[in-house]
Here is the input.
Amino acid sequence: RAGDRMKRLFLVLVLLPATVWAASSVRLDPSPHDPRDLASLQAGAATYVNYCLGCHGLQYMRYKSLVDIGLNEAQIKEYLLFTGEKVGDMMKAVQDPKEAKSWFGVVPPDLSVVARSRGADWLYTYLRTFYRDSKTVTGWNNVVFPNVAMPHALWHLQGERGLDPKTHRFTEISKGSMSAPEYDRTVRDLVNFLVYVGEPAAQSRKVIGIITLIVLVVLFFPLTYWLKKEFWKDIKQQ
Here is the structure.
């Protein structure tokens, strides 16, 4: 009945905010990435190849495509190709999937569109909230993704941290090779690169969209004025 449907709708509207709050109880830090920053994109690509590509491939991206972020083929060969790949090859994970599954329990996912599915803020926060946990298989855990199967690939850079169960604050166990601000910049560059990989044509698409809107506006006013003249001409003739 209509009355029952209204009651159900009311309950959904009342409970929805609580559901959303529960699903996003971890506060995400805003990602300071900038897809126009080519230096950041290049640094992010280097970090990805050195620390992530061993397990996580980018199946929709070729090494050669990195010329679009300001690298030339010589730089790609020198700084990003380490295991006999060719510039025209896809950026596939180095590790064998079966071997990776035996180590981590799951096959590490391809990260071509992870920035689009998870969001830049999620990635930026996730990569900065790992902590040591002796109860997990890998010895690592994560605030944003509890009991994640992935170990902290960047721990040599950030250092080792624990998490106080009472205050939910991080405690330092050992220092990394980077200071906290340096590590945050490295993560920012890595997230920037993953956002770019998720949609390489995003900047071009935005520019084309703006140009299209300007053209439509320019065409709209003369057309509107002509229609107005035609409309009033017919009225005056009556």
Q: What stands out?
A: Residues 2-24 have pLDDT under 50 and may be disordered. Residues 128 and 184 are 7 Å apart (CA to CA).
